[in-house]
Amino acid sequence: MKIDGQAYRSVWLDADDRWSVHVIDQTKLPWALEILRLTTRDDAAHAIRSMQIRGAPLIGAVAAYGLCLALRADASTDAMERDAALLNATRPTAINLRWALDRMLTRLRNTPAAERVAVAYDEAGLIADEDAAQNETLGRHGLPLIEAAVRPGRAVNVLTHCNAGWLAAVDWGTALSPIYAAFNAGIDVHVWVDETRPRNQGAALTAWELGKHGVPHTVVADNAGGHLMQHDQVDLIIVGADRVTRTGDAANKIGTYLKALAARDNGVPFWVALPSSTIDWTVSDGVAEIPIEERSQAEVTDMTGRLADGTIATMRVVSADSPAANPAFDVTPARLVTGLITERGRCDATADGLLGLFPERR
Ligand code: MRU
Questions:
Q1: Ligand 1 atom, smallest distance to 59 CA
Q2: pTM for the model
């Protein structure tokens, strides 16, 4: 996708040295576009843990490149297994992290140590390229949902939560990919962007990337969605996912479940868009089995923004003696999900629906 006319991905190799890894520091957006250069395993682990990069598919791709950087330092089997485990422990909920590292190890365990670095870069490159291609394709599969919602004289209003755009993936995004496809096809589309407390990925990232692409959008407080649905202001909801069970339960940023409940009460279609790397085929009950990341209280008690003089400032918005809790994800049960949008097409949020698209998993 483009920033001010220049094509970007969210992760790429240095054009000169062809081994160091560049990412956009997402903790600086929307105030500044700062590019980080990752040169070590610890740089990659820190980028994931501190959410300089985030979003399920991008976490997977950066972890894969992180293993490449680790192998440059030590390509022995023991070090490779240790470094993969360290990267795997950086965040718990998005399954793409484990998926990408498992895929890397599967190929690398059968590779002599002397060839591992080259093979690792090849595999990480494939992971990144496939993610971009899959997300572009799932956008085409989601496009008919937006086309079907076109009504004369008004924009199609799509509500989304968190950031499931190209910043969260390698390119295109998941939930935003059908929206970009619709916008590029000339459809009058408008996006309600949930601010997504506590880290404001909607306000800071989704609004920024939609704006850079020219897609009309409006940021709303997280709690506004139900009201908008009651007043016929939302035609459909599309969200991304950090992990989808084989039965169609979907873990996504905290607050997604509440949107699905309001959607059900108001008859608004609720779709989840995901590449197949986000499916955890080993899990059946998302609420019981998906680990939910618990993050720092400070993300709830403090807010960061830009002052009138341009200074970026963080301030506490909760009284000094009140504790806070910060579960970062929730699970929307499959019964509340209208359907799933994947690179193989759309399906019901059920085991049969997913197996229909991915019969090799039977
Ligand atoms: O904590 P984050 O910002 O990594 O959470 C990201 C989300 O919840 C996204 O909606 C999800 O990863 C889908 S991304 C394509």
A1: 4
A2: 0.98
Closest CA to 278 of 239, 247, 237, 250: 250
Task: Report whether residue 253 contacts ligand 1, using a CB cutoff of 6 Å.
Answer: yes
Reply yes or no on whether the pLDDT at 4 is more than 90: no
The pLDDT assigned to 2 comes to: 84
For the Cβ of 242 lying below 6 angstroms from any atom of ligand 1, the answer is yes
Distance 114 CA to ligand 1 centre (A): 36
pLDDT for 276: 98
- Tell me: pLDDT of 238 over 90: yes
The answer to whether 193 and 207 have CB atoms below 8 angstroms apart is: yes
CA pair distance 271, 13, nearest whole angstrom: 33
- Pocket test of ligand 1: the residue of 10, 54, 59, 329 to mutate, having most ligand atoms within 8 Å of its CB, is 54
Ligand 1 neighbourhood includes 246 CB (under 6 angstroms): no
pLDDT surpassing 90 at residue 18: yes
CA dist., res. 331 & res. 335, Å (int): 11
Q: Residue 296 and residue 328: Cα distance in Å, rounded?
A: 10
In 3D space, the residue among 266, 291, 280 whose CA is nearest the CA of residue 102 turns out to be 280
